[in-house]
Amino acid sequence: MTKTVLITGATSGIGEACAIKFANGGYNVIVTGRNADKLNALKSKIEAMGAKALALVYDVRDREAATKAVGSLKDGWENIDVLINNAGLALGQEKEHEGSLDDYETMIDTNIKGLLTMTKLIVPGMVKRDKGHVINIGSVAGDAAYAGGNVYCATKAAVKALSDGLRIDLVDTSVRVTNLKPGLVETNFSRTRFKGDNERADSLYRGIKPLTGDDIADTAFYCAEAPAHVQIAEVLILATHQASPSIVSRKANG
Hints:
alpha/beta; 7 strands; about 40% helix
């Protein structure tokens, strides 16, 4: 039977790469995000590959909209085998006492509360069917704070704690939980963080060959396709010349 994956934040970067990877792997794919045009373009791309796709337009910060969207699933789409909680962002890099409370609230509402909303909406069905897999996209930033990371690091530390807690809560079921922790990945992430300052965003990747969304999607797919008795709890994925959130060698050719 064909499996179904639901991916939040699927309009670009890691989320889009996961959608393509899982479609190529034979999954039916539900893509979600805020941009209807991008989601529908991705849906068409997946369908052109010969896979089935469904687009749900909503913001994970909006619990009511998320609940309505997930509640609209029918004809087998509601039986989700893999949930990829990918929607997330960083905003700004100011010192904690100098940053924007609005930015802090957006990160917390997206990275933590949005993940919790989707977990609450999808996991009970997995438990009822006694099968499923939750893949949370965390970050190396969740392991240790770095200068300017403060609140973002805290949200990704929460993703780790929530992943570990969910795994404990599901230990008597066949539902698996994985926390993927990427390091430097070249996507729109930094452009969002620096609010359109492309020069500042691009400088993060100079002198090093960073990871790509495809690299993370490959890892997510590997975890999802592991034998049923194998639970890959956590994966830290770094570029070769990155050792930690703040230790990077920029001597390599980017």
